[in-house]
Amino acid sequence: MTTSLADVASSDAALRAFLHGLPGVDRVGADQRAAMLGTRSIKTTAKAQAIDLAISMVDLTTLEGADTAGKVRAICAKAVRPGGGAPSVAAVCVYPDLVAVAAEALAGTPIKIASVATAFPSGRSTLDVKVAETERAVADGAHEIDMVIDRGAFLSGRYKKVYDEITAVKAACGDAHLKVILETGELATYDNVRRASWLAMLAGADFIKTSTGKVSPAATPPVTLIMLEAVRDFRSTTGRQVGVKPAGGIRTTKDAIKNLVLVNETAGDDWLTPEWFRLGASSLLNDLLMQREKLATGRYAGPDYFTLD
What we know:
Layout: H1 12-20, H2 27-37, H3 44-57, E1 58-61, H4 69-80, E2 91-94, H5 99-105, E3 112-115, H6 127-139, E4 144-148, H7 151-155, H8 159-173, E5 177-181, H9 190-202, E6 207-209, H10 221-238, E7 243-245, H11 253-266, E8 279-281, H12 284-297
Parallel strand pairs: 1-2, 1-8, 2-3, 3-4, 4-5, 5-6, 6-7
Helix pairs in contact: 2-10, 3-11, 3-12, 6-8, 9-10, 10-11
């Protein structure tokens, strides 16, 4: 483990100097590389394997104000047995007050329970409220906390405040993993995406996540590319591996496979597992299942063949 980052978080000035000293992102280059990788074609057996891998990486998500215990139970059942012999998904992601419902429904399965504690999606609350919400979600059975950063603090250069909130929530997680949501659609520049990625990792994030899914644009390929470069470079610098979770707007099998190509070509094989890469989505699973059925039988099953999420 390198010691060169030991004093980076000692003050706002030190954090600012480090984050603004990171190499700038070539916006044109990032856009072009992401577009080029998005044209890669995967066929037949490789496509079938990619679809099953993508299914195993899905964080099946319901984050609506109208969510009910019944809806969460139904999604949990689908997470365990998506249909057609497909593998289980990686996790089910719900609001904190529904964690206990998911925990009961998923008891005895390997599927993780993720919860969006910390005043999701705005992040506009006091730290004690964010910590209390995190502790309650973990006590109710959450294995993973998807925390949203205070974008107002980040964009106004109060990096230490963001860092301290992440470290406090990380401590409140206990044994649970912490996914830090950057809300990249509000960060304005690719340079800010890189800086926020490094800030979250320095503060102890186990995963960095693009978006809440409530702001557009969400998980664009160039943004995911930049975050994958960040985790690759962070491991090279510190020896610690951090996962990536694009979320929001990933709806089709084509979208999912593009993300797998980005992972393989940018971070490498080490990230091509559900342990280190997730796809946050609500409607993606159905399309993956339909494409899987098409490969197996030669014909499409209608969208009503699978349960609606």
